[in-house]
From TrEMBL:
This is Acetylornithine deacetylase/Succinyl-diaminopimelate desuccinylase. GO terms for biological process: proteolysis. The keyword Hydrolase applies. InterPro entries: Cyt/Met_Dipeptidase (IPR051458), Peptidase_M20 (IPR002933). Keywords: Hydrolase, Metal-binding, Protease. It comes from Bryocella elongata. GO terms for molecular function: metal ion binding; peptidase activity.
Length: 567
């Protein structure tokens, strides 16, 4: 992971020469760590130990990108289970190479939702430091639902010009499932930590890693792990990176002939039977239509918005300020959509940060072979849905209201299966030491804050660093109060949460983080390996990690927790 070549045991001197020659002949990626404009970050104020890390990152950026390629090449699809055990062991191997004294893959067992959770990988790296930083990872990814839409195979990790991937503003990107969600940012963290240790011998803080394999399954395994093993994070003083989270509850709805008492009951039957027989499939479609407005954008569920919080006047002003700089056409194109529900930038930004939704994620039953004939009258249809909600709403309460609405609409026979719930979280104070450290790291490297407090590159670029929920987010107060895309913030946060599970309660780092990527959950997911500037490429992301870790070790307004260092 540090760019060193590890030779097999029993390797002879001739083999070493061959290995050396192989490295020389291996095609170089020639990644420019400073991006195509060639302007390096401002490093003049960096202490010597940090400057050495920056130099190491520049010298080894090709190797660091290859590390990400190898991880992308290992599928880790939690919805199907493909590659999950292998990926858990691979992540454990990362932590072993970092030198963590304790690394373990935990089998979390059966979760409260009745499904087995995927393994959680835990590691503790004792550097003998006063402060300990916890780092949250997900190693699972979404499935590939439309392979023909990819410009590159999703599990090869190929590097292509950004223009070929539909992002002409980025010179070179790595395309692959998990590239931005979340293997790219996580590998940037690991590369930075490995670089720090390679040149300085140890890290300035202790580390605790928690890597889950269920983020795309509502974090069901991590929820049980935190409930059972909160003590493993008892020495953590902060979470490296985090922020607020929307709530998200996930269900499956099933209409069956057996429960309905009409149509086929035991199995699908021949399609000719529709001449004489009721269709559970058509019943399911009408049931779904009864739950939303005709455009599908407004849930028609009694009490759906009960207790819902709306943006404050201060937050609305921030949204209006950002809306004045927002190009909806460009933003929609970058996100792969034709247009938004509204043509008003203020409404789009407000919906993206404070909105709720009832989505149809997928539906199946009967003849599922595209393009093929074959007459089928299905006996059962299932659809999957996520409700995204905000403070002070409650996921299980939404499902109770859904049940009541279905009964009221005449669909008492429709089954509801709860897949999982991720409650909302406010996040932490932006004045916490870890957030201050992120901002100091940005300033150390020449980034600056202005206007509504985004960090901007030294070349006065107007691009924001942090993207939450797929739209550009300001830093500071709004981040602490608003919601981003869902993630298990509620399991770690020291702020207000929709439900408390376990006893972990630590501040989470919010601030500028480099790198750029996009198309999470979509075809041609990408992560920038070479940016147009240093800050939106992989090397810049790594330097910000190293600087933030260093700055946190030097920033103490809250006393660290007592530590039990390894002997």
């Amino acid at each position: 992971m540090t760019g060193l070549i590890l030779l097999p045991l029993g390797c002879k001197s001739g083999d070493k020469a061959a290995s050396s020659q192989a490295k020389k002949t291996k095609p170089a990626l020639h990644i420019n760590p400073n991006g195509t404009n060639g302007v390096a970050p401002v490093e003049s104020s960096a202490p010597p130990e940090l400057k050495k890390v920056f130099d190491y990152i520049d010298a080894h950026i090709d190797d660091h990108v290859e590390n990400l390629q190898k991880w992308i090449q290992q599928p880790s699809i939690s919805n199907s289970g493909e590659g999950i055990p292998e990926s858990a062991e691979m992540v454990k191997g990362f932590f072993d190479k970092l030198g963590c004294q304790t690394t373990r893959v935990y089998d979390v067992g059966i979760t409260e939702y009745g499904s087995p959770g995927n393994p959680v990988v835990y590691a503790k790296c004792d550097e003998g430091a006063p402060k300990t930083v916890a780092i949250y990872w997900q190693y699972d990814t979404m499935p590939v639902t439309q392979p023909d839409a990819w410009v590159q195979p999703p599990f090869e990790g190929n590097i292509i010009p950004g223009a070929a991937a539909g992002v002409p503003d980025i010179p070179r990107v790595l395309v692959g499932r998990g590239a931005v969600n979340s293997k790219g940012p996580e590998m940037a963290q690991l590369n930075a930590l490995m670089a720090y240790k390679a040149v300085n011998g140890k890290l300035p803080v202790n580390l605790i890693f928690v890597a889950e394999g269920d983020e795309e399954r509502m974090d069901i395994g991590l929820r049980k792990f935190i409930k059972d093993h909160s003590d493993l994070l008892s020495e953590a003083d902060a979470l490296y990176a985090g922020g607020p989270s929307e709530g998200c509850v996930y269900v499956e709805l099933t209409t069956s002939g057996l429960k309905w008492g009409r149509g086929p009951t035991v199995s699908d039957v021949h399609g000719v039977m529709k001449r004489t027989t009721d269709s559970p499939a058509w019943r399911h479609i009408h049931m779904l239509a009864s739950l939303t407005s005709p455009d599908g954008n407004t849930p028609l569920i009694d009490g759906f918005n009960d207790n819902r919080e709306y943006p404050t006047p201060e937050q609305m002003q921030q949204l209006k300020d950002r809306a004045a700089k927002t190009d909806l056409v460009k933003m929609a194109k970058n996100q792969g959509v034709a247009r938004y529900m509204s043509d008003d930038p203020v409404e789009v930004l407000k919906d993206g940060r404070f909105g709720t939704s009832f989505n149809l994620d997928g539906i199946w039953g009967g003849n599922m072979y595209a393009g093929g004939a074959g007459a089928i009258l299905p006996n059962k249809i299932t659809s999957k849905h996520n409700f995204r909600y905000v403070p002070k709403m409650d996921g299980p309460d939404l499902i109770r209201k859904l049940r009541a609405q279905l009964d009221k609409n005449g669909y008492k026979d429709v089954d509801i299966k709860l897949i999982g719930d991720v409650p909302w979280s406010r996040g932490s104070s932006p004045t916490a030491d870890i957030s201050v450290a992120h901002r100091k790291a940005a300033e150390l490297l020449g980034l600056k804050a202005s206007g509504d407090n985004p960090f901007m590159a030294a070349d006065n670029s107007s691009e924001y660093f942090e993207k939450l929920g797929g739209e550009l987010a300001p830093l500071g107060v709004a981040q602490a109060e608003a919601t981003g895309g869902y993630w298990p913030s509620y399991l770690f946060s020291d702020g207000e949460v929709g439900q408390k599970v376990g006893s972990v309660s630590i501040p989470m780092g919010m601030g500028a983080r480099g790198g750029q990527g996009g198309r999470a959950h979509a075809a041609n997911e990408y992560f920038a390996v070479e940016g147009s500037r240093w800050d939106n490429g992989m090397a810049g992301a790594e330097k910000l990690v190293a600087a933030a870790i260093y700055e946190y070790s030097q920033t103490t307004t809250t006393a660290p927790k007592p530590k039990t260092h390894a002997k």
